[in-house]
Amino acid sequence: MPERRLAWLALALVGACALFMTLGARGNWDFVLAFRGAKLAALLIVGAAIAVSTILFQTISGNRILTPSIMGFDALFVLFQTLLVFAIGGFGVAQLSQGLRFAMEFSLLLGAAVLLFGTLLSRARHDMHRTVLTGIIFGVLFHSLTAFIQRLIDPNEFAIVQVNSFARFNAVETDLLGISALLCAIGIAAAWRYRHRLDVIALGRDQAISLGVDHRRAVFAILMIVALLVSVSTALAGPVTFFGLLVSSLAHSAMKTHRHALLLPAAALISGIVLVAGQTVTERILALATPLSVSVEFLGGLVFLLLVLKGSQR
Amino acid sequence: MKIAAVAALLALAVASLFVGVIDVGPAALLRDPEAARLMAISRLPRTLAVLLTGASMAVAGVIMQMLARNRFIEPTTAGTGQSAALGILLATLFMPSAPLALKMLAASLTALAGSVLFLAIVRRLPVTQPLLVPLVGLVYGSVIGAGVTFVAYQADLLQYVGVWMNGEFSGVLLGRYELLWVSGIAALAAWFVADRFSIVGLGRDVSVSLGLNYARTVAAGLLMVSVITALTVVTVGMIPFVGLVVPNIASRLLGDNLRASLPWTAAGGAGLVLLCDIIGRVIRHPYEIPVGTVFGVVGAVLFLWLLYARKPGHA
């Protein structure tokens, strides 16, 4: 019963959240709850955004080893942030209202994503490995360009972009929480409305068209949702390469279904559990200095290798 | 064309001697002993280090491509560089007072282990999908890289790791780069057995039927790649894409007879890295942009061009 598994996942997430909020807390509860609550909210938003965007991206590209971050989406977002600071200066960026700045970065990302990944994805079915390789090389290119421009920026202004170049789950930008929660909710609601069409799109382009789905429009809309969710998660927590892959393959193996009405919530729940529980364990139990993103990257990369090796056996 | 290439390389090398924070002209060399000292201590070693690194990285790339029988990999995208960084990190951690040579040995050993494991993985991939190999290599490298970051974070050595991961020549002075001559010698050694690597590139069965000791040649190749990569990582840091882009261009222009093309591959690597180093020195004068960053941009663009401009059917 997939529905029952979904309920178990939800229960596990609630448990993880409770542990995260209470474990090892000393002193003033008002402070502790508010402080950890903001962190928890950020983790959940980031987790849901990454999980849903990955599942959507994998469905429209028609394979399980592509994710937005493997294709260099979030590297592109960081590049745009750097370019913005380079173009109008750190002071100019600081003067922009948060909403306006986010809108600019988001629309740039969307434009580039549709141009770049729209054309790549239309070929992806024929030559998947070349597409993935291209994406990874784009990621390296965007990283190098970002590093390059960062060297050209004044050191004082550099501090503004530096924060966003590294993944961090323990020091998320809590002042962006409100707008991020709103945008994330919009993105997820839009993805939910597409859940049945996604099931059809997953059958492949020709099948989907013959079943009456406006394929081109649907793919464009879904790419838009993906770009929105990636901007939210990257703005909040920075780039993470393999986390989405880890979550989506866990969701697929836990649910064993192709229905997005079940896959999407399952992936979001699993993502939340991994992040919240992982953060609790690394921070409170193991008292490790290493950020969670590093261990997540390690595990996600291993999952990727296993997927590829297993896939090649077939 | 070959004469033009040599002339360009020489011109770049001379330019590299006279580009830097302190303005030194050729005439000042004769008059000013201070300028001659600067040349001997900083500029000349730096130029030599760049040339040695570029040449030997390109050669290591060729060998790796022949061993894995795939055009799209090189030591830094196949986990060898990251493994070397892991080795020197562990050596720093467990024997902090060990001499540099011992740390070098540790780096070479882990680089060797990392490459052997990579080749073992590659052998299990289907031959029909050549682009899967670099993909697996990149992920394999980033898994090892994440391991390195994890250990370094715990031990507060992240800054060291940053130095090994990002290639940069600004720290090169007389007395600090001489290990690179060893990697130059390893690259030269590769030239003497170049035709064997050409045969290894044809596959195991062909090699054995042509009378080649396949296992020994592969082992020798892996050893050369590991030594070159470990030395480069320890002395100047990783420079991505050199071993990937240069051999591919050389093989398009000159074909696959390694004995004939290897010197040109080495020269091409040296020239391209030197060009990127000079760009990095000039573009934000008097500050510097690390050569790894400049090459990351240049190399990624060249790689994309290779990926899409190649004739279909050639992997």
Automatic annotation (TrEMBL), chain A:
<dbReference type="GO" id="GO:0022857">
    <property type="term" value="F:transmembrane transporter activity"/>
</dbReference>
<keyword id="KW-1003">Cell membrane</keyword>
<feature type="transmembrane region" description="Helical">
    <location>
        <begin position="218"/>
        <end position="240"/>
    </location>
</feature>
<feature type="transmembrane region" description="Helical">
    <location>
        <begin position="72"/>
        <end position="94"/>
    </location>
</feature>
<keyword id="KW-0812">Transmembrane</keyword>
<keyword id="KW-0472">Membrane</keyword>
<feature type="transmembrane region" description="Helical">
    <location>
        <begin position="176"/>
        <end position="194"/>
    </location>
</feature>
<keyword id="KW-1133">Transmembrane helix</keyword>
<keyword id="KW-0813">Transport</keyword>
<feature type="transmembrane region" description="Helical">
    <location>
        <begin position="100"/>
        <end position="120"/>
    </location>
</feature>
<feature type="transmembrane region" description="Helical">
    <location>
        <begin position="285"/>
        <end position="309"/>
    </location>
</feature>
<dbReference type="GO" id="GO:0033214">
    <property type="term" value="P:siderophore-iron import into cell"/>
</dbReference>
<feature type="transmembrane region" description="Helical">
    <location>
        <begin position="40"/>
        <end position="60"/>
    </location>
</feature>
<feature type="transmembrane region" description="Helical">
    <location>
        <begin position="132"/>
        <end position="153"/>
    </location>
</feature>
<dbReference type="GO" id="GO:0005886">
    <property type="term" value="C:plasma membrane"/>
</dbReference>
<comment type="similarity">
    <text>Belongs to the binding-protein-dependent transport system permease family. FecCD subfamily.</text>
</comment>
<dbReference type="InterPro" id="IPR037294">
    <property type="entry name" value="ABC_BtuC-like"/>
</dbReference>
<dbReference type="Pfam" id="PF01032">
    <property type="entry name" value="FecCD"/>
</dbReference>
<dbReference type="InterPro" id="IPR000522">
    <property type="entry name" value="ABC_transptr_permease_BtuC"/>
</dbReference>
<protein>
    <submittedName>
        <fullName>Iron chelate uptake ABC transporter family permease subunit</fullName>
    </submittedName>
</protein>
<feature type="transmembrane region" description="Helical">
    <location>
        <begin position="260"/>
        <end position="278"/>
    </location>
</feature>
Automatic annotation (TrEMBL), chain B:
<protein>
    <submittedName>
        <fullName>Iron chelate uptake ABC transporter family permease subunit</fullName>
    </submittedName>
</protein>
<keyword id="KW-1003">Cell membrane</keyword>
<keyword id="KW-0812">Transmembrane</keyword>
<comment type="similarity">
    <text>Belongs to the binding-protein-dependent transport system permease family. FecCD subfamily.</text>
</comment>
<feature type="transmembrane region" description="Helical">
    <location>
        <begin position="173"/>
        <end position="194"/>
    </location>
</feature>
<dbReference type="GO" id="GO:0005886">
    <property type="term" value="C:plasma membrane"/>
</dbReference>
<feature type="transmembrane region" description="Helical">
    <location>
        <begin position="131"/>
        <end position="153"/>
    </location>
</feature>
<feature type="transmembrane region" description="Helical">
    <location>
        <begin position="262"/>
        <end position="280"/>
    </location>
</feature>
<keyword id="KW-1133">Transmembrane helix</keyword>
<feature type="transmembrane region" description="Helical">
    <location>
        <begin position="80"/>
        <end position="98"/>
    </location>
</feature>
<dbReference type="InterPro" id="IPR037294">
    <property type="entry name" value="ABC_BtuC-like"/>
</dbReference>
<dbReference type="Pfam" id="PF01032">
    <property type="entry name" value="FecCD"/>
</dbReference>
<feature type="transmembrane region" description="Helical">
    <location>
        <begin position="287"/>
        <end position="308"/>
    </location>
</feature>
<feature type="transmembrane region" description="Helical">
    <location>
        <begin position="104"/>
        <end position="122"/>
    </location>
</feature>
<keyword id="KW-0813">Transport</keyword>
<feature type="transmembrane region" description="Helical">
    <location>
        <begin position="47"/>
        <end position="68"/>
    </location>
</feature>
<keyword id="KW-0472">Membrane</keyword>
<dbReference type="GO" id="GO:0033214">
    <property type="term" value="P:siderophore-iron import into cell"/>
</dbReference>
<dbReference type="GO" id="GO:0022857">
    <property type="term" value="F:transmembrane transporter activity"/>
</dbReference>
<dbReference type="InterPro" id="IPR000522">
    <property type="entry name" value="ABC_transptr_permease_BtuC"/>
</dbReference>
<feature type="transmembrane region" description="Helical">
    <location>
        <begin position="214"/>
        <end position="242"/>
    </location>
</feature>
